[in-house]
């Protein structure tokens, strides 16, 4: 069986079409993530505007300087919590985009490796006596595939641990600031 130029071109064309489809899927996925991030930004901006209006009304209604100071200090914790929630939501969107892109890359790599193996087998049939070279190349492809899978698994695990640590540290910081501002507000209210 000969590997005719027409067969090789057809194979290359199929691979190219596959890559175009992969890019289209990645573009759609990224566009969806941008839409989610835009919606998050708009909702956060609306909430911040609403909170600013309420804060300004509270400040205008304050009759004593200590009440004014208590309102201002008391606004720190909710603002910090909103910032933490925003960061966590944005991080979730970014993580989802990363997972989607990893899936696409892994699928593309798998298809590419299958194409390489098919090409090697076709060349082996076209060139009798090249079994050893084809076997060596197949082993190299299998080793590269295994190394890629191992590296991507390590990257996923490191990313998950880093995200969990960042979330925990931020929650502890928000809690500490909340306790401190609550104590400060209580101190201002009790001072006569």
UniProtKB/TrEMBL annotation:
<protein>
    <submittedName>
        <fullName>TIGR01841 family phasin</fullName>
    </submittedName>
</protein>
<dbReference type="InterPro" id="IPR018968">
    <property type="entry name" value="Phasin"/>
</dbReference>
<feature type="domain" description="Phasin">
    <location>
        <begin position="15"/>
        <end position="107"/>
    </location>
</feature>
<dbReference type="InterPro" id="IPR010127">
    <property type="entry name" value="Phasin_subfam-1"/>
</dbReference>
<dbReference type="Pfam" id="PF09361">
    <property type="entry name" value="Phasin_2"/>
</dbReference>
